[in-house]
Amino acid sequence: MSHRSTPGWRGRLRPAVPALCVAALLAACGTTGGGAGGRAAGSVDPETLMGLSPNEVSAMMGQPELRRQEQPAEIWQYRTGTCVFDVFFYDQGGRQQVTHYEARHRQQGTVSAPGCLGQIVASRGGRATS
After folding, report:
1. By the number of CB atoms within 10 A of the CB, which of 7, 28, 34, 51 ranks highest?
2. What is residue 123's predicted lDDT score, i.e. its pLDDT?
3. Is residue 92 classed as helix, strand or coil in its secondary structure?
4. Cα three-residue angle 79-97-28, rounded to 5 degrees
């Protein structure tokens, strides 16, 4: 029996999307060193967040430290010791999804968005480290 002929086969793949996104982000963490603050967490391309739903972002990054509504947006904020990463959700065709992100240093100076996101994914991505 072919999965393609079974009605709803695409719907059964949908739950795997967050796990695949996490795997892709974690794999990318090890590709480049030197995230914000000089940590070895690596960098993660924040463009991988674009179009994701709140559930998918939560599965990938954990729960945010702060959620705020600024109509028409919902903003989730993640923090590390050196940076802050904001994820912006907007309604796109009846579905909340990431359309923008921002990264900034907690004190002063500059921070790379990939480096900051790499730190967050490494520290909150739901993968236990030993």
Report:
1. 28
2. 87
3. coil
4. 55
Q: What is the reported pTM?
A: 0.66
Residue 13's φ and ψ, nearest 5 degrees, are -80, -25
In a domain, 130, yes or no: no
d(CA 112, CA 110): 7
Beta bridge partners of 84: 79, 104
Q: What value does the mean pLDDT of the chain take?
A: 75
Contacts of 59 (CB under 8 A, 6+ apart): 18, 19, 21, 22, 126
Domain count, the chain: 1
Helix (H) or strand (E) holding 75: strand 73-79
pLDDT of residue 41: 52
Domain that holds residue 76: 3-124
23 vs 84: CA distance, rounded Å: 23
The residues near 66 (Cβ < 8 Å, ≥ 6 apart) are 76, 77
